[in-house]
């Protein structure tokens, strides 16, 4: 999902990957080329299924681990932006 225009992540795309269990920060340049800026989360929480960004840049993600790890293993993850 694209970040809010007021967010520190404005103009970037966050991609949650169930299979790879990653949350990636991506930019698409003017020529349409995709550039991965960083892996925000890599195989730390299991299968990530949804991501949203708050106006202050806080990232919220949900997991979808029930089919793999059993019920009760899903979580809402809150990743606060680093202090500047």
Strand order of the largest sheet: 1-2-3
Oligomer: single chain
The ordered H/E elements are EEEEEHE
Per DSSP E runs of 2 or more residues, the count of β-strands stands at: 6
DSSP summary: helix tally: 1
Mean residue pLDDT: 77
Task: Return residue spans where pLDDT drops below 50 for at least 5 consecutive residues.
Answer: none
Percentage of residues in helical conformation = under 10%
Please summarize the sheet with the most strands: 3 strands, antiparallel
Q: In angstroms, what separates the terminal alpha carbons?
A: 24 Å
Q: Which band does the percent of strand residues land in?
A: 35-45%
Global morphology: globular
What is the domain total for the residues? 1
Structural notes for this entry:
The longest helix has 4 residues, at 66-69. The protein has one helix at 66-69, and strands at residues 13-17, 22-28, 34-42, 48-53, 59-63, 76-79. β2 and β3 form a beta hairpin. It is mainly beta and 84 residues long. It is 5% helix and 43% strand. The chain has one domain (13-79). The protein starts with 12 loop residues before the first strand and ends in a 5-residue tail after the last strand. The strands form two sheets. The protein has a three-stranded antiparallel β-sheet, with no helix packed on it.
């Amino acid at each position: 999902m694209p970040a809010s225009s007021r967010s520190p992540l404005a103009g970037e795309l966050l991609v949650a990957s169930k299979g790879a269990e990653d949350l990636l920060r991506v930019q698409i340049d003017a020529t349409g080329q995709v550039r991965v800026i960083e892996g925000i989360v890599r195989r730390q929480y299991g299968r990530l299924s949804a991501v949203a960004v708050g106006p202050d840049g806080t990232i919220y993600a949900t997991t979808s681990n029930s089919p793999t790890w059993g019920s009760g293993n899903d979580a809402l993850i809150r990743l606060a932006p680093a202090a500047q």
